[in-house]
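Re-running the complex after MR caught last week's input typo. The corrected sequence lines follow. Everything else is unchanged.
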Amino acid sequence: MPDLIYVYCVMDRTPVLEHLAVSELPDLLVHDGLYAVVGRVLAEDFSEENLPVRLNDPKWITRRVTLHEQVVEHAMQFGCVVPLKFGTVFKSEENVHAMLKAHAIEFRQELSELVGKEEWGVKVYCDRRRLAASVAAQEPALVELDRELASAPKGRAFLMAKRRRELSAAAVNREVARLGQVCFERLLEQCLKARVNDTLKPEATGRSEEMVLNGAFLVRKDEAPEFFRTVNRLDAQFGPRGLVFEPTGPWPPYNFCQFNEKSDQLG
Amino acid sequence: VINLDNVVVRGQDVSLMEVLDRVLNKGVVISGDLTISVADVDLIFLGLRVILSSVETMERARRMSGAQTAPELV
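Corrected-run output:
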């Protein structure tokens, strides 16, 4: 079956791809100084009928997503990259050339804006039990309830304990939201652009702690150390209360390349 | 203490979840010849739960000179 052309990313420098150790060696298509890093994929994998089936195949999607990330990360060692969304495919080389031509101005503009910048991710998790302990000491209503509980008769104590659980859960929810916001705002001050992504559920993260912030930050390379000092300060301040910080990067600027769709970015 | 030296950086391990979270629904949207709409990332994650739990991290072969082997894929 004839191949389709999968476009990983676009750049304005020539990446060296020959020695990349991946399952499918990528290739380059060039149009007027713009380089599309491409791969040949099976039409049967990416056809409109078959893709939904493939997307439900964990092995397939893991392999494709891993390859996508490896290729783009490799390419970014040679210059700025504009990563394309997973699964952008074309029927022919001519169509890729036409795409580069049609979007040349936008690609060049994005690439020039990205010089000297890198994307970092910060995920913040919360151990609710630890946070609940610190919240209990701060909420007047809970402190009062705990005091009354100590001397309450048995029947009444049961109801009060129930009430306490409800109050505590609500207070922890408020505090989780507040801390997520505080962390984000503090990091926002140390970056050029920021994006808040959906938090992932424990089923996805495989962690017992709840994700409270899934942030992406565009940082000037020379300001990355200060960005990390800020993460450290937040860790020192909120770690004892149950927050866990997980920074990763530098990533290809997945969260900061968007044509004609910039209104939802902050910063 | 988190700093640039011990954070997850090039050539080290990063969780598959992180990679999926970034790659699946981010990046520039350009209409290719086939229009693909990737399902809600949460749903895909749920489908991937088995793999995510058995493969905690994957080797990211990134450095041009250092990367000699492709990552172990499930």
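None of the earlier attempt is carried over here. Strands of chain A lie at 3-11, 27-31, 34-42, 82-83, 89-90, 117-126, 193-197, 210-220, 243-251. The first helix of chain A runs from residue 43 to 46.
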